[in-house]
Design goal:
214 residues; mainly alpha; Arc Repressor Mutant, subunit A
Length: 214
């Protein structure tokens, strides 16, 4: 019977590669959150992850690829959170509220890193900019399929695209003002709900106007 030691199996094969890649991404998340995309270096990641340089370069070409992988992971986590929020209720207003809460929940848990990822994704010519456009296109189509107007017709994905860009803008502004404190998150939530309800809620499921916070 063929056997392999736990030490050997953890160092080789797909599982070992997965663990090493995850370790690098976890370390890189801390480094980028602290230093930003421009100042962080591969050496910083190597030290934080406590791995050899040759191991890093077997998995990633450079720090930009690591940043892109972190962006992909964060987008997938966000989309899954919104999918769960949408599936958790049939009430259209609650769907909107829970989707916004899912978005802000990620901001609260990884605000410093998301600030860096958002800024890099909005920088023309960056590797993340291409991924951002692809993510917005895919998310717009998927989320639009879960929302219908009063006549039962699907929402135009372009409308959903506009909503997502607006929410992204609010998030970016919030991060520009400083760390996402409870007060800033509460304000962002009120503004985001105003945007999504005004855009997506029909007359039957519209909510009362939210107070403007100055």
């Amino acid at each position: 019977m063929y056997t392999v030691s736990s030490t050997a199996s953890s160092r080789s094969g797909p599982l070992g590669t997965h663990f090493r890649r995850s370790s690098i991404l976890q370390a890189a998340a801390k480094v980028f959150a602290k230093k930003g995309a421009r100042e962080a270096t591969v050496e910083d990641v190597l030290q934080e992850a406590a791995i050899a340089r040759r191991t890093f370069y077997r998995l990633f070409k450079n720090k930009e690829e690591v940043l892109a992988a972190l962006y992909d992971v964060s987008c997938e986590i966000l989309l899954n959170a919104i999918r769960q929020a949408v599936a958790s209720t049939d009430d259209p207003v609650e769907r909107l509220e829970r989707s916004v809460d899912a978005y802000l929940g990620l901001q609260q848990g990884a605000g410093d890193l998301l600030r860096v990822l958002e800024a890099e994704a909005l920088r023309p010519g960056s590797l993340l900019a291409v991924r951002r456009e692809a993510m917005l296109e895919a998310a717009s189509r998927e989320l639009a399929a879960h929302r219908t107007d009063l006549d039962g017709r699907a929402v135009d994905p372009l409308v959903m695209h506009g909503v997502l860009v607006a929410l992204e803008g609010i998030s970016y502004r919030m991060h520009a003002e400083g760390p996402p404190t409870k007060a800033r998150l509460d304000r962002a939530r009120r503004v985001m709900l105003r945007i999504v309800t005004a855009t997506l809620a029909g007359p039957k499921d519209a909510v009362a106007p939210l107070p403007l916070v100055r």
